[in-house]
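Sat 14:20. Reprocessing the chain from the morning session after the first attempt stalled halfway. Input below, unchanged.
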Amino acid sequence: MIRSLFSRATRALQRFWRARAGIAAVEFAFIMPMMLVLYFGISLLGQGLEISRKTQQASRTIADLTTQQLPSNSGGTTSNGCSTHAAVPCVSNTELADFFAAAQLVMTPFPSDVSVMSAAISEIVFDNVSKTDKRCCQARVVWSVGFGTNPPVRSCGVAGLTPVDNGTNGATLMPLGNYPTAAGDVTHNNSVLNNSSSNTTDYYLIVADVTYKYQPGYDFKLFTWGGSGATYTIRQTTYMSPRSGNALAQTNTLDSGAQQTQAILWSNSGTSTATVTNNCAAGTDYYLP
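Finished this time. Tokens:
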């Protein structure tokens, strides 16, 4: 009796050991979580890279449209206060709002309302070190207009922006490659631009900063570090020189051909959707050559 039971149990274990039915389901159960992580991870990474590319295009669109402004006597806008500056390129609140709206269209088909996308359009002047020291250059903000919930506007102040290595961006920073001297000459050496008594160079730059809050479309634990519905902020910055301007009157010994650029005035008039504006004061927040 006992021998018979033992024999049947042994045969049952042998059959179980040789059985292959259902092995694919077991293997799939082990592999499926890894497959899902890989699939959704690649999907989210691709979407994030596409949004980053479009954010860069949106930043470039804002800077490009702003730097194309012409004086009203050369076909530029004459609306909303700009008509009083016939010989100088000018933008009003209406134009800047249109530029931001154009950048929002660039983000299609991704969301681009002000809760996820913000932008700041700023003009920077590379001006004299101080009222009495005309050496070049300190980067300071002339005006900065922001759109969206939390725009990266640049602040006024005589301290100016901090020079940093190329590739580093931020609302308080200015990469060395944007300075009017080829070597990012902020040490005031070996340049006509750095003559303490005779520098008369005007050099302006338009900067477009765009931030985008990317929230992954799949909300499960792997992608919710920091809580449910975590977002990741994408930042892109574009620097462009105004298109309207004349050749530099004095030669820069560092690059033998620096070029001055014309200021683009901002007329704080017209319909505005801006959320933050900084209109800096000449002689206080920045010095003209």
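Helices lie at 2-18, 23-67, 93-106.
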